[in-house]
Design goal:
This protein is of the alpha+beta class. The strands form two sheets. Strands 3, 4, 5, 6, 7 and 9 form a six-stranded mixed sheet that branches. The chain has a three-stranded antiparallel sheet with strand order 1-2-8. The radius of gyration is 20 Å and the shape is globular. This is DNA primase/polymerase bifunctional N-terminal domain-containing protein.
């Protein structure tokens, strides 16, 4: 395979322990979808938000590519990815785990003062606190703190120190209390300047707009920061004034951006800047 042998060994060791693994490329991000799967044209995989029969042999669909099957990890379809990989990632939720990603010293101090001790892994700027139990992933639950579990991935940085402890309600509450940056849809109809009903309430119209935005982000080959901002700006200019955007729509856009390597705080900043530009 000509893969870096230490990365392949790590992935196989994780898989043998029941932890779904995948290769990550430069920037610690997943590999993008192949042309046949771009924009979820294939229908997605069964464990993605959009179910479907995709059986792509490559490392497609970001976190959903993570697997515990050694024959997939060593398959010819993954060979090119392993040759370009710089590190190994894993899907915490797929292993029944939750990672509290503490991105700076202030966040680490907060965790020591607030959360029960558990297995800890040092990162380049902070620490990963790993708990036994899966939950919904949520980014930027507080400054410098992301939660990575179901439908997310984390970089594998070693086994860490300390025993695993059960996922505390404190962490679950953090995700539950996090407000999305978009206004939720609360009314059945919204008056427009022409006095009619908001056209964005038509499900097909809004769904098509969100799908096109996801595809634009996913297919960006360069200038990802600028593409994400422009896409957020376009979505908000069309759908941001009538309250039709929901948490689910915003999370879909953020997920697409993070699959291209954007950090959670960059997504929040881009969304906030777009709202400010439009006076929302």
């Amino acid at each position: 395979m000509n893969a870096r042998p230490e990365l392949l060994r790590t992935a196989l060791t994780l898989a043998a322990a029941g932890v779904p693994a995948l290769p990550l490329r430069a920037g610690k991000v997943p590999f993008g979808n192949c042309p046949g799967c771009a924009g979820n044209a294939c229908g997605g995989r069964p464990n993605m938000k959009t179910p479907g029969p995709c059986r792509c042999p490559g490392v497609c669909h970001a976190w959903a590519a993570a697997t515990t099957d050694p024959t997939v990890i060593t398959s010819p379809g993954w060979a090119a990815a392993w040759r370009r990989a710089v590190c190994v990632g894993y899907h915490p939720g797929g292993a029944g785990l939750t990672v509290v990603d503490l991105d700076n010293a202030t966040a680490v101090d907060w965790a020591h003062a607030t959360l029960p001790a558990t297995r800890t892994v040092e990162t380049t700027r902070g620490e990963h606190w790993i708990y036994r139990g899966a939950m919904t992933s949520r980014n930027a639950v507080r400054p410098g703190v992301d939660i990575k579990s179901s439908m997310s991935y984390a970089r594998y940085l070693g086994p860490g120190t300390g025993p695993l402890t059960a996922l505390p309600d404190t962490v679950r509450a953090l995700a539950a209390k996090t407000a999305a940056p978009a206004r939720p849809a609360s009314a059945v109809t919204v008056p427009t300047a022409r006095g009619g009903e908001c056209p964005h309430r038509m499900p097909a119209y809004l769904e098509r707009g969100i799908t096109m935005a996801e595809q634009q982000i996913t297919e960006a080959s360069d200038a990802v920061h600028a593409t994400v901002y422009r896409t957020f700006l376009a979505v908000l200019s069309r759908h941001g004034r009538c309250g039709c955007l929901t948490d689910t729509h915003v999370n879909r856009l953020f997920t697409a951006a993070q699959a291209k390597g954007e950090r959670a705080r960059h997504c929040v900043d881009a969304w906030t800047n777009a709202r400010t530009t439009l006076g929302l």
